[in-house]
Every structure is written in structure tokens, then in C-alpha cells.
Design a protein that fits this description.
mainly beta, four-stranded mixed β-sheet, 1 helix
């Protein structure tokens, strides 16, 4: 299953969107919108299942310095899966910029 984040952010907000991810039923991938300088997205995992939650850059865009990059909201221990989060900030739209973020546990 793949979901795509809306290209039009709500306003005003600290983050454009806070997206709660629940993979209890199945693993899924979330595709980021096209790079847009200054945009912020926060993802929070709500479950402790073994199913993967993957956040994927849009085709040709950068995530953490890698074209078509991705990050996973997953931890090897179920005790740490619920509450995993990542805040992604878009630095810009050229090949040295893109989306940046770090997965944090609860």
C-alpha cells in the first residue's frame, strides 16, 4: 500500500502536517510531495507491529542527501516502535538540498 502526502499544506501551522502512521494491519509506504523549500512534515508511528512504515521521496527528489531516498519508522524492538517519529524539513529544491530528517524514538 502506498499513500501520498498532499502537495498543498494547510495554513497556519507549526508543521504543514502531522501524520499519524498505524501499520497494525499492513506495511505501507508514504510518498512525500515534491520538494518545496521551508515545508515541514511530522510523522508519528502509533503501533508496535512488525509491519514496516516507509517514507519515500518523490521520484527524482532527495531525502537525507540521497536521490529517491527513504527512511523507515521501524525499530528492532517492539518496545521502541510505538512513538517513533521523524520531522522532515525541506531545505530547497536543487540537488544539494531536498528533505532532511532524523528518526527519533519515544
Amino acid at each position: 500500500t502506498t499513500y501520498t502526502v498532499d502537495a498543498s499544506p494547510p495554513s497556519p501551522s507549526t508543521y504543514d502536517s502531522t501524520i499519524f502512521c498505524d501499520a497494525t494491519a499492513t506495511a505501507f509506504t508514504i510518498t512525500l510531495p515534491a520538494e518545496s523549500e521551508g515545508r515541514k512534515l511530522k510523522f508519528i508511528r502509533k503501533d508496535d507491529s512488525t509491519n514496516a512504515v516507509t517514507i519515500q521521496a518523490a521520484s527524482g527528489d532527495y531525502l537525507n542527501g540521497t536521490v529517491d531516498g527513504n527512511v523507515s519508522l521501524h525499530h528492532s524492538s517492539s518496545a521502541y516502535r510505538k512513538g517513533l517519529s521523524i520531522v522532515l524539513v525541506c531545505e530547497g529544491t536543487d540537488t544539494t538540498e531536498g528533505w532532511w530528517g532524523l528518526v527519533r524514538d519515544n
